[in-house]
Structure formats: C-alpha cells, structure tokens
C-alpha cells in the first residue's frame, strides 16, 4: 500500500494584515487609532470598496504604501463602557467580475479612568499571611480619592492609608492568621470613590493557606510542596503566586533532567 502525504495551502484573494484589529483597553473619551493593510493576491484581484459603517469610528486610506493599501481606523467617540466589536467590510472582484466580500474584525474594550487590579490573593507564607497594598491610579493622571472601603468577610481587614493623591493606597490583611484557611475564604472588597464613571468598584479576594488550584498540587520529581516557592523566587502578595512558581519549578527540573541525560550519554575516555 502506498501512502501519500499531501500539503494544502489556502490562498486568499485579499489578505488583511493584521487580520484582527485590536484596540485593547481604551478610556472613555480617549483618542486612539490602529492601522491595517490590504494586499491582493495578484493583479487580477481588484479591491473596489472598503467601508466601516459605524459613527464611533473614522476609516481613512493612507498614501505612500508600496506593499498593499494601508488604512487607519480612528476613534471618534466611545461613550459606553464594555467590549465593542465592529467589522470593516472589504468588497472586491476577480477577473471574471464575480463580486466577493470579506470582513476585518475590529475589537476592543472601553474602560473607566481608574486603574486597579481586579483580584487580591492572600496566601500563607511560612507561619503568617503578609498583607497586601492595593493601589488605585488613573489613566489620565488626575488625582484619585477613596471615600470608603469595606470587606464582605470579617476575616479580611481593610485600611485606607492614602485616601487622595496621584494614587490611593488601601492595605488589606488577614485579621487572625491562626484561623484555619485550608478551605479558602472568598469575598469582595467594595471601594467608594469620587470618580464620576466608577463611584464604586468591587475587588474579589481569596485567603488560603496554600495556592488555589495548580499551586496545591504535588509535583512529580519537582520537589515543590504545596505552599513552597520555586527555588530563587520571591512570591509576592496579589500575584497568581503558585501557578508561576510551579511553571518555573517544572522548567528548572526539565533543564536539570536534560543535563543529566546528556552526561549519561557521554562516551567514556579510552583507557590509558
């Protein structure tokens, strides 16, 4: 029996580079723009129309490109919070005149002026639970002011240490470190601010005596016990702590095994 391996390639008549235009996070009222290029597969493919029918954006073609047709998408006005998605419609025709159409997706998210982490993790280190300094700043560098901060569970203490300025700082800590947190305590911290877009923000927190999820697993051959940092790593509060530790430890173990395998395969020197 003869087996044939066939490789197939799909050739697009018109290619968009990038094929997804992403703005990431944009503050409400911020100006932003992104570019993309359209390339036809050959001279027989004619791009006839490129449109973006959404009043929140402006589409313009740029001049001076020798490698396809360049376009820029500019934000006109984004007023609603949340993710957005629109499509640039490209209409083109082949030699036989058959009209065709493709789209270039445009994605992003409109966010408020405040910048802050969405979660806080308080994991046991040694015999204690180090506190966490939670910081709020602004995208526009305007002063931030926090009025109140409260936790949904009494196991977490919340103290406003810097209420107003270029940043606000809220210290979070475990009230009773001797409490059993083998079952993680989860809750939220509600923070009231003077920001007109986000007068109240809600942060999720977890208190646990070891990493939640991947960090609680025993690694085969890695020697990393639950709650033990990878060698040479300092685990900081609020980070997805133990997942990174485990990934790092696995990488170290893999490198070490490779070194041992290389040594075992070395040919011994000839006897004198």
What does this entry look like structurally?
The protein is mainly β and 272 residues long. The protein has 3 domains: 14-111, Immunoglobulin-like (Sandwich), CATH 2.60.40; 113-209, Immunoglobulin-like (Sandwich), CATH 2.60.40; 212-258, no CATH class. Helix content is 9%, strand content 44%. It has 1 helix and 17 strands. The chain has one helix spanning 241-264, and strands spanning 14-17, 21-27, 33-40, 46-51, 57-62, 69-75, 82-93, 99-111, 114-115, 119-123, 132-138, 144-151, 156-162, 164-165, 168-174, 185-193, 200-208. The strands form 4 sheets. It has a 5-stranded mixed sheet, with no helix packed on it. A 4-stranded antiparallel sheet has the order 1-3-6-5, with no helix packed on it. Strands 2-8-7-4 form a 4-stranded mixed sheet, with no helix packed on it. The protein is elongated, with a radius of gyration of 28 Å. The two termini are 54 Å apart.
Please describe the topology of this protein.
Layout lengths: L13 E4 L3 E7 L5 E8 L5 E6 L5 E6 L6 E7 L6 E12 L5 E13 L2 E2 L3 E5 L8 E7 L5 E8 L4 E7 L1 E2 L2 E7 L10 E9 L6 E9 L32 H24 L8
Parallel strand pairs: 2-8, 10-17
Antiparallel strand pairs: 1-3, 3-6, 4-7, 5-6, 7-8, 9-11, 11-15, 12-14, 12-16, 13-15, 16-17
Number of helical elements: 1
- Tell how many strands the DSSP assignment holds: 17
CATH class membership of the largest domain: Mainly Beta
Q: Provide mean pLDDT, rounded.
A: 80
The CATH superfamily of the largest domain is Cadherins
- What is the CATH topology of the largest domain? Immunoglobulin-like
Spatial shape: elongated
What multimeric state do the chains show? single chain
Distance between the termini: 54 Å
The share of residues in extended strands comes to 35-45%
Computed over alpha carbons, the radius of gyration is 28 Å
Low-confidence stretches: 213-242, 263-267
**Strand order in space, largest sheet:** 10-17-16-12-14
How would a crystallographer describe the biggest sheet?
5 strands, mixed
Fraction of residues in helices? under 10%
- The domain count comes to 3
Question: Topology as H/E string?
Answer: EEEEEEEEEEEEEEEEEH
Question: Structural class, please?
Answer: mainly beta
């Amino acid at each position: 029996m003869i087996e044939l391996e066939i490789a197939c390639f799909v050739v697009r008549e018109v290619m968009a580079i990038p094929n997804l235009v992403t703005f990431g996070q944009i503050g409400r009222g911020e100006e932003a723009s992104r570019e993309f290029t359209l390339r036809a597969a050959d001279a027989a493919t004619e791009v006839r129309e490129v449109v973006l029918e959404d009043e929140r954006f402006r589409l313009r073609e740029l001049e001076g490109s020798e490698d396809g047709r360049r376009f820029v998408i500019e934000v006109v006005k984004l007023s609603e919070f949340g993710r957005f998605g629109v499509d640039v419609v490209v209409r083109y025709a082949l030699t036989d005149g058959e009209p065709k159409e493709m789209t270039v997706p445009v994605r992003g998210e409109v966010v408020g002026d405040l910048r802050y982490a969405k979660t806080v993790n308080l994991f046991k280190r040694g015999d204690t639970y180090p506190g966490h300094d939670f910081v709020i700043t602004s995208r526009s560098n305007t002063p931030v002011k926090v009025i109140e901060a409260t936790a949904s569970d009494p196991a977490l203490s919340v103290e406003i240490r810097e209420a107003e300025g270029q940043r606000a700082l809220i210290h979070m800590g475990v009230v009773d470190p001797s409490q059993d947190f083998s079952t993680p305590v989860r809750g939220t911290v509600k923070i009231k601010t003077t920001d007109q877009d986000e007068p109240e923000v809600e942060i999720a927190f977890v208190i646990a005596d070891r990493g939640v999820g991947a960090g609680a697993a025993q690694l085969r051959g890695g020697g990393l016990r639950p709650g033990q940092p990878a060698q040479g790593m300092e685990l900081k509060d609020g980070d997805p702590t133990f997942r990174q530790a485990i990934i790092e430890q696995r990488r170290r173990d893999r490198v070490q095994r490779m070194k041992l395998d290389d040594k075992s395969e070395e040919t011994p020197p000839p006897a004198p």
